[in-house]
Design brief:
By secondary structure, this protein is mainly β. The chain is built from three helices and 19 strands. The strands form three sheets. Strands 1, 2, 4, 7, 8, 13, 14, 17 and 18 form a nine-stranded mixed β-sheet that branches. Strands 10, 11, 12, 15, 16 and 19 form a six-stranded mixed β-sheet that branches.
């Protein structure tokens, strides 16, 4: 009898393990019966970036911990990049939902030197690296010369917003929101009030529910910029402006725009939460 029970338990373990290894992103259907969903394991570092390529654009990312830094690559809606803030990172999970209605579940651990830095779900069975042709590029086509011209004008545009946050003598301010050539531009002002140089690692714009904005785990809708300036080191006691452009959008009153800039190999990570009514103060950029 005991041997029979042992065999039965072993069979169940083997079955669940097999499902976990071979399952693909699952389609969300209300009528589907409950089934096991596979979990993919990823190792994340604070000094290396892990890239995950999905068959379709990323629509939502839920991080189990604020220590995870997540961003979608500009111009490529289905490439998600992940890092962590520090080496004391504890195991957590990440859930990604893509535009085709599939979701992917990941279990993340810290490793200073991850064995695998690039994962792809593009291709047969979601396995193997997909060709470049499978990367989802935005259907919108923008004139790069015009974008650079508008950016130059915006650098000298009058600032009129004052929402800001200070951390470690670094001041992040939303200085203005502008409308120009069918795009919504954001001017961010970074002021380093210390003697220690500040090197931005990445910047992300996302939409979060205000009721979840201060929780550790949060579901976010990542926004993909049409234009973003390359981020440069902000030397001690200096100020720099950073410009980003998006397709125009608004928010429901219950939502917040989260702007986050993280310091490379540092702890001065800056987060601004912007209310919906602030977006409606956007000004047309005059010629």
């Amino acid at each position: 009898m005991k041997n029979g029970v042992r065999i039965f338990v072993a069979a169940i373990i083997i079955l669940v393990t097999a499902i976990g290894k071979h399952v693909e992103g699952q389609v969300l259907k209300d009528s589907d019966p409950i089934s096991f969903i596979g979990v993919y394991h990823v190792e994340l570092s604070d000094n290396k970036t892990t890239n995950i390529l999905f068959p379709y654009a990323v629509k939502s990312v839920d991080r189990g911990s604020e220590d995870i830094i997540a961003q979608v690559v500009q111009g490529f809606g289905n490439v998600l990049q992940l890092k962590v803030n520090g080496a004391d990172f504890k195991q957590t999970n990440i859930t990604v939902i893509t535009s085709d209605g599939r979701f992917y579940s990941f279990l993340a651990d810290y490793n200073s030197n991850p064995e695998l830095l690039n994962l792809s779900f593009v291709g047969k069975g979601g396995e193997g690296a997909g060709p470049v042709e499978n990367i989802a590029i935005s259907d919108e086509h923008y004139n790069e010369a015009l974008l650079n011209e508008d950016a130059a004008k915006l650098l000298s545009a009058r600032v009129f917003l004052h929402k800001h946050i200070v951390d470690g003598q670094m001041n992040l301010r939303l200085a203005g929101i502008y409308l120009k050539d069918g795009l919504m531009w954001f001017k961010l002002r970074l002021s380093n009030q210390s003697q220690v140089d500040y090197e931005p690692d990445n910047i992300s714009f996302s939409i979060v529910d205000r009721r979840q904005a201060k929780r550790t785990a949060r579901q976010e809708i990542l926004l993909h910029p049409v234009f973003i300036e390359s981020m440069k080191i902000i030397q001690g006691n200096t100020t720099k402006d950073l410009l980003l452009a998006f397709k125009p959008f608004t928010l429901a009153n219950a939502m917040r725009l989260k702007i986050q800039i993280n310091e490379n190999s540092g702890g001065r990570n800056l987060t601004l939460l912007i209310k919906a009514n602030k977006l409606l103060r956007a000004r047309m950029l005059k010629e």
